[in-house]
Design a protein that fits this description.
- The protein is mostly helical.
- Helix content is 68%, strand content 0%.
Length: 60
């Protein structure tokens, strides 16, 4: 019962959907920032995966 009250209050207080207006989301600086974040995520994800893999020592 309490969870229903909390979710109802949260739905009334917190707006659902986008946090920014559409004009901001579709602007060029926002798109550049989104591309930077995407590339940064891929780089750090691949670095973390490479660190988790076993070491590779080529035979000499």
């Amino acid at each position: 019962m309490l969870s229903h009250v909390v979710s109802a209050v949260a739905a009334a207080v917190v707006p659902q959907g986008l946090l920014f207006p559409e004009a901001v989301v579709l602007s060029a600086p926002f798109k550049i920032l989104a591309a930077f974040v995407a590339i940064n995520t891929l780089i750090h994800g691949s670095l973390a995966a490479a660190k988790a893999l076993p070491k590779f020592h080529p035979s000499s």
